[in-house]
Amino acid sequence: MNATMLAKATEKKRGVPLIKPVAGLMAVLILAGCGTIKPEPMTQDEITARVNRDRAEMYRGQEALHGPMTLSDAMARALKYNLDYRLKMMETALSRSLLDVSQQDMLPKLMADAGYRWRNNDSGGTSIGIDDGLVSLRPSTSEEREHYLSSATFSWDLLDFGMSYFRAKQQADEVNIAEERRRKVLQNIVQEVRDAYWRALGAQRLLDETQPLAEQIAQALDKTREAEQAGILPPIEGLEYQRALLDAMTLLNQKRQQMELAKSELTALINLPPGTPLVLQDTPTPLAPAPTNIDKLEQMALERRPELREEDYKTRIDSYETKRQIASLFPNLNLFAGLNYDSNDYLYNNNWIEGGVGVSMNLFKLLSIPAISTANDARAQTDDARRMALSMAVLTQVRVATERYKLASYDFQIAEQSAQVDQRLASISRAGSDNSLTSDLETLRTQARSIVSRFQEASSYAEAQAAYGRVLNSVGIDLLPDQVTKTDVASLSRQISTSLRQQESSVFARSAGVTVEKHPIAIQIGRVPSGVSRGAVEQSVGRVIEANHLSLEPSPKSLNLQMSFNTGASNGTRKGVWTMRVIDADGAEVLTRQYTSYLPNETSTRSITALAEAATLSITSDLQRLAGAPPVLTATP
């Protein structure tokens, strides 16, 4: 019996004989794997696949374009599809997710634990006397070589809860900061869309007229060189004409390139694939008078600007950091309770419940109270100084933006008048042309100058609209209402249009683009010389009216422009007189003007239509006033 028990004890002590070989084999495999990792560059197929996926994802799920695009449509597409704005939306969502994680940290801890223990021999021990050192007990064990453990412990730490609470409050303000940064990105995108939209619209209006004129200038250059080589023109005169034509072509190309790039910028802002056909709605939009209540705008800017709101949240985050540091100085209270299980058969109780409470405090940390107080005071002073500096910058931006809008509006007025003068010069030059080479060259030069002036007018108008947007941006005007009901492009466009109109009315006495009563122009050509095409005259007058942002669409409220031509003589010189009358919708005569000019020796459709254009241009300002165009703007408040 004793021999049997001794054999079992010896067998139990031997343990598992394979543990050492298995451990050695695993060590060899791990060491061998450490030297097998080498750099592997991506293949061209992998790069191409990634590029194709990205390009497909960039434009996935976008609504197709339908009809001409308005400014609010462009803003809606930028809001819905712009990649930079999508990124900010994702960052805001990430901040909200981090807030959820921070809130979970405030919950008590419930730790579940399970395990398996094994050893190759028996644990145990003996007891010896303290005084004599004699063994009083034989060697014994109370633990099996193999047994399973499991437990579930509930614990709550007061200090951890306080730290987690303040961190969660800080993360909540981080969400607010992400929201303000999203607002700022959106406001900047709106500003860029507004700028690109109006420049692209100016290009759309004028580029169709530019190419035929460029071809005519190129042909005129060839004729001038031929005339110079044939001796028809003196070399100096021929070169001067070539220089003038090349200067006109250079100016034309510069203006055309500046305006053409705007459409590419707009397609990028609204995330359309490059090369997508884009037609903008050509609706004349008057400029609003510059705001005069600067104090009100400054107050609005200090309340609405995302940068200042972000500073407010940063200050609150710092205040929570101060509270967190102070809370860390207090004693810590820890409560715990748990269920335990051990499969060890030598235990009297394999299941038990335990619990306890503990209080602890780091007394040396109390020595850091002066340093914490000094750091918190310095942090608060820094926050105040940074906010004050930013507030001063915001106030400066409001005043600068307002002054820039005044100057840009005045520049547009000058550019508009210059364009009308150059159009009249081109018309008069074309009317007096006698089909000679020098006359044709002078006519082309004036036409090129006229187109360049109209490009400058469109560019000045776009600059004025951009300055208008900068005023709104400096105040912190939001694009969207507080609640968005639908997210399709058409619904977003309507909500944006309504929201902007309401918001802009709080900044400008009359918002740009506000609906006013408009009166289209109806043309009626009366008497013309024999052999002159009345239809050609009407088309020329119509082009002048449309070029100056007046509408020709028929309407019951149309103004009727009646024009008739007469010839006369003064001091032996033939003169042509265009009599113009404007009749309103009620039949009342609201304007009467006469335009007199010298007549060429040969009266033709070309000369009469050119004089009709010059006559129409002479009353363009009156027509704009009668048709509901904006009042004259000045550079002074």
* Count of helical stretches: 15
What value does the average pLDDT take? 79
CATH topology of one domain: Double Stranded RNA Binding Domain
Fraction of residues in β-strands: 5-15%
- End-to-end Cα distance, whole Å, is 118 Å
> What CATH architecture of one domain do you see?
2-Layer Sandwich
- Taken from the alpha-carbon principal axes, the silhouette is elongated
What's the CATH first level of one domain?
A: Alpha Beta
Q: Main beta sheet, described?
A: 4 strands, antiparallel
Structural class: alpha+beta
User: Care to count the β-strands?
Assistant: 8
Give a summary of the structure in a few sentences:
Belongs to the outer membrane factor (OMF) (TC 1.B.17) family. This protein has a domain of 116 residues: Double Stranded RNA Binding Domain, CATH 3.30.160. Helix content is 58%, strand content 13%.
Description:
One of its GO terms (molecular function) is porin activity. Keywords: Cell outer membrane, Membrane, Transmembrane, Transmembrane beta strand, Transport. This is TolC family protein. This protein has 637 residues and is α+β, with helices and mostly antiparallel strands. The chain has a domain at 517-632: 2-Layer Sandwich (Double Stranded RNA Binding Domain). 58% of the residues lie in helices and 13% in strands. The protein has 15 helices and eight strands. It has helices spanning 2-14, 19-33, 44-58, 71-81, 83-104, 158-230, 235-269, 294-304, 306-327, 369-431, 437-475, 489-505, 534-547, 605-618, 620-626, and strands spanning 109-118, 146-157, 332-342, 351-360, 521-525, 559-570, 573-583, 589-598. The strands form two sheets. The chain has a four-stranded antiparallel beta sheet with strand order 1-2-3-4. Strand 7 (573-583) and strand 8 form a beta hairpin. The longest helix has 73 residues, at 158-230. It is elongated, with a radius of gyration of 42 Å. It starts with a helix and ends in an 11-residue tail after the last helix. Mean pLDDT is 79; it is low at 1-17 and 630-637.
